[in-house]
Structures are given as C-alpha cells and as structure tokens.
Specification:
By secondary structure, the protein is α/β, with parallel strands linked by helices. The protein folds into 2 domains: 162 residues, Phosphoglycerate kinase, N-terminal domain (Rossmann fold, 3-Layer(aba) Sandwich), CATH 3.40.50.1260; 174 residues, Rossmann fold (3-Layer(aba) Sandwich), CATH 3.40.50.1260. 32% of the residues lie in helices and 18% in strands. The strands form 4 sheets. Strands 5-6-4-1-7-8 form a 6-stranded parallel β-sheet. Strand 5, helix 3 and strand 6 form a beta-alpha-beta unit.
C-alpha cells in the first residue's frame, strides 16, 4: 500500500508544491460543499507543523480557459475564515515572487493550456515552484494532467510523496477493490459518460449488479447495438424516466423507458426504477454509489435521488458514496454521515474499484 512519506522529511523553510483536489461544487461563485476542502486539511496541517512553505495547486471546474467563475480566488475566503494566512497567486510568475510566503494558492491549473494537454514543458515550469512535491489529489489520479503525471517525475524519489488523503482513500477502498462482501451493487450515474462508460466492462466481473442512471443509461442504450456476453444480466437499466420536453423545466412527466421520443429530455428515473433499485439495495452487502438522477437546480426532479440516498443509507451494507455533486446532495439531505465511507473521488474511485491503473500513482 502506498504511504505518505512527507512527514519524515526535513522541510523547514523549504517550499512544498502540493497538488490538491479542491474542485468543490459551486453555484453563483458560492461553495455548495466544502467536503473536499476539509478532506485536504490533515495534509495541510502536517506540512504547516513541519514549518514548510506550501504552494497549493488545484483545478476548479472544467473551464476551457480563464474564467472568473472558476477562479481559485473564490476559495480564499474559506481559508481565511479558518485562520490560514494564505495568499492568492494569479499566475506562476507571481507565485515565484511570493516564495517566502507561508501559504500560497495558485490560480486554477486549467486556466493554463499545458495542464490538460499533459505538456511536459508546462510541468517543468510548474515544478520549479517547489523543492518537494506532494500529491493529495485523489480525485484526479486517474487523469494524465501535467500536474498529476509529469510534475512528480521531475522530483527525486526522496522529494515526492502522496498526501494523507490519498493514503487514506487507498486504504479504505482497497477491501472493496480486492474482496468485497457480496452481493455487491454499484450504482453509476451523473455526467462524464465518456470516462465512466469504458469502465463498465471492467466493473462487470467484479460486481453482482451494475445499475446505470441518467445520463449513463441513456448513453449506454443509445450506443449498445449488441449483447456483451453472459454478463449483460448484471446491468440494471431504468424501467421508466422522468422527462421534460421540448425544453428543460420543472414541468415533467413519467414515461416508460421504451417510450422516449426524439424531443424528450431525460431528467431522472421514475417510480418503477426506484422500486427496482430499492430491491437490489435491500439485499446488498456492499454498495458503491457515484452519481444521482435529477438536476439540483430543478427541485421537482430530485425526489428519486432522495429516495435512493435514503434506501442506501438505511441498508445494512458497507456503503461508499463518491463524486462531488453526489456528496453535496447527501449533505443537503442530511444523510452524508450515514455512509460507511465517503470518497473525495468520482472517476478516480470507480477507476480504482474497476481494477484499472491510476496514472497519478506511478511516481508515488
């Protein structure tokens, strides 16, 4: 098991570049859930206790370029409210001029083109900010971003480490990845079908039931042209949907899954599907949940999400919730503390549980 080595370093007055995952859900520049921020604090506290100078690098949202709505400057008040003497650096050049500051938050990494492109040249520029490197960003370990895969390679093995959160995530998720108590139910939904759908074939041999929610289910049904062997029966697709048409609105209706028309917008699942999933949940001993049906900005579409969260947290199973938006909804419904474990990752968690490599761990 990978362990955090940084606590044994002599880093007094040295600069540590920390790749964190502070990608919190936002609404009108307001933090909806600070779960990931709080999860990062143990590593931050440990580095401060070691008298290191810390530069935090993170992404926020998925902007295509600089966008004030996704600036990490929005996170500064959260740190200040908790007593951190933190400074915001709008770019890497400015961060270099602040090297004697005890704590710096760098601007959104995704404002820099080289980050998502995995540019080695950008990685070199970023790596020059630190004497040491710590990756505590479990939620992006499945990505090949420059700060995740190339930057650690530029530090000597004795000068790079995972953080306490990454260590904890791997320790807590390993039993499910290796020897889950069965029946094992995995519920997948939400956005980013392009990253989650390829994991289905890797998950199927590991789970007893794989339930797909919108928008994975509709994407899966649209592209599935043939059976995928004997494992197909493990997949639960919705029996009915909550839809809106011809535009997205609070005015919805329930239709059978096979009755979806071209002009319909699938928003959530219907009562038949909720009942189907409740039956699977009731008999499970392990449940992993990533993604929920409905749109948070349309309250009338969230009843099914509430019902599923209630069913999972009422079960006797070992339950894991993952994904920022799902966590925010569970906090809203006051059921987050009832999960056995809550992971800061979404795609990274599912990738790990599917037995696939996490590129960000290569040099850690």
């Amino acid at each position: 098991m990978i362990q955090a080595q940084f606590q044994s370093w002599d880093i007094r007055n040295n600069t540590v570049l920390v790749r964190a995952d502070l990608n919190v859900p936002l609404s009108h520049k307001t933090i909806l859930s600070d779960f990931r921020l709080k999860a990062f604090e143990p590593t931050l506290h440990a580095l401060i206790k070691q008298h290191a100078r810390v530069i935090i690098a993170t992404h926020l949202g998925n902007p295509s370029g600089p966008d004030a709505a996704y600036s990490t400057q929005l996170l500064i008040p959260w740190f200040i409210d908790r007593g951190y003497a933190i400074t915001y650096a709008p770019d890497i050049a400015t961060a270099h001029t602040m090297v004697h500051n005890p704590l710096i938050l760098l601007e959104n990494l995704r404002f820099f083109p080289g980050e998502k492109e995995g540019d080695v040249s950008f990685a070199r520029i970023l790596a020059q900010l630190g004497d040491y490197y710590v990756n505590d960003a479990f939620g992006v370990l499945h990505r090949s971003d420059a700060s995740v895969t190339h930057v650690p390679a530029l530090f000597a093995p004795t000068h790079r480490s995972c953080g306490l959160l990454v260590e904890k995530e791997l320790r807590m998720l390993a039993p499910i990845a290796l020897t889950p108590e069965r029946p094992y139910v995995c519920i997948l939904g939400g956005s980013k079908p392009h990253t989650k759908l390829p994991l289905i074939t890797h998950l199927l041999p590991r789970v007893d039931t794989l339930a797909l929610l919108p928008g994975l289910s509709n994407t899966y049904e649209a592209c599935q042209q043939h059976p995928i062997g004997t494992s197909l029966h493990k997949i639960l697709l919705p029996l009915d949907y909550q839809i809106s048409s011809p535009v997205l609105s609070n005015t919805t209706r329930i239709i059978d899954a096979h009755a979806v028309q071209q002009e319909d917008i699938i928003i959530s699942i219907g009562p038949k599907t909720v009942t189907q999933l409740q039956k699977a949940i009731a008999t499970a001993n392990t449940i992993v949940m990533n993604g929920l049906p409905g749109f948070a900005e349309l309250p009338s579409t969230m009843d099914s999400a509430h019902a599923l969260l209630t069913a999972v947290t009422d079960s006797r199973a070992y339950t894991v919730l993952c994904g920022g938006d799902s966590i925010a909804r569970a906090q809203e419904y006051k059921v987050l503390s009832r999960f056995t474990y809550v992971s800061t990752g979404g795609g990274a968690t599912i990738t790990y549980l599917a037995g696939q490599p996490l590129p960000g761990l290569r040099y850690l």
